[in-house]
Amino acid sequence: MLDRLNQAMEHIEGHLDGHVEVSELARITVTSEYHFRRLFSSLAGMPLSEYVRRRRLTVAAADVLAGKPTLLEIAVRYGYTSGEAFARAFRALHGVGPGEARRTGAALNAQPRLSFRLTVEGNSTMWYRIVEKEAFRVVGKKARVPLIYQGVNPHIAEHIRGIPPETMLRIAALSDQDPEGVVSATVRLSDGFEEGSELDYYHAVVSTAAEPPEDLDVLDCPAGTWAVFDNSGPFPEALQQMWGDVAARWIPSNPYEYRPGPEILRTRPSQDDPAWSDAQLWIPVARTAV
Which residues are CB-neighbours of 173 under 8 A, at least 6 positions away? Predict the structure, then answer.
């Protein structure tokens, strides 16, 4: 997988002055377009489109400073429909317009070219199992919140506090399958994994209820394959680390790829240490060709 990812980076570099087709990157890496976008964003820390934009403006900056060709020719070469659009994008990345940069030789920002390599860190083991589930529903209360990587997400905490206790009892009573009890379910609304990108967050249960109460939010999930991970550790640091390890370590090393669907998290306070939690993370996946 790492070799294929690096081949995809080579393809991007060769097409910065043309079209970068996600379908071709998916073909190179032998994945679906959905999986490639998810995997790239999780590893690079930015959406694929943002990386390509930054690389184009980095390479274009070299042409700007070289004094030729004209700024309009540079704009067209790197996919901008007008000099004004190019100037706005250039200023957003470099903090200075292309005309001023050419006149003054200003110092500019650069997006380094990405490459992927395997880093061995200790000998830790990720415990997981593969589960085939029939169709089910996520039933509870939904809120749109920003993604926050470190610490407790205050927007989620506020949403949970706002659910009346009587409503929580009704939600909990609908739980009828694994993962049992109240869970957190998140649905990403964009390809990006960047801090601040929006999520639909459900404080909910997994249920087969045919007619849930009308005041509750419902997310239908088709039958499919799920990778299930377990860990214990300080809350919320340990589970956030587990989420990152799934994307950076487990997905590139196993014959599975992301598929559309919610990521479901079940946490319970540890019986041994109240500052710790026992977490179980369910990720929707599909097996890839070996």
Answer: none
Q: What is the predicted pLDDT for the residue at 161?
A: 95
Helix 48-66 vs helix 83-94: crossing angle, to nearest 10: 100
Q: Count up the domains in the chain and report the number.
A: 2
**Could you tell me if 162 and 258 lie in one domain?**
yes
- 93 and 182, same domain (yes or no): no
% of the chain residues with pLDDT over 90: 49
* Cis before 179? omega within 30: yes
Return the H-helix or E-strand segment holding 84: helix 83-94
Residues 6+ apart with CB under 8 A from 283: 226, 227, 228, 229, 246, 258, 263
| Nearest alpha carbon to residue 108 among 53, 72, 61 | 61
Q: Are residues 98 and 134 in the same domain?
A: no
Residue labelled with tokens 């390890």 = 245
Q: What is the pTM of this model?
A: 0.67
Structure tokens at 218: 């419902």
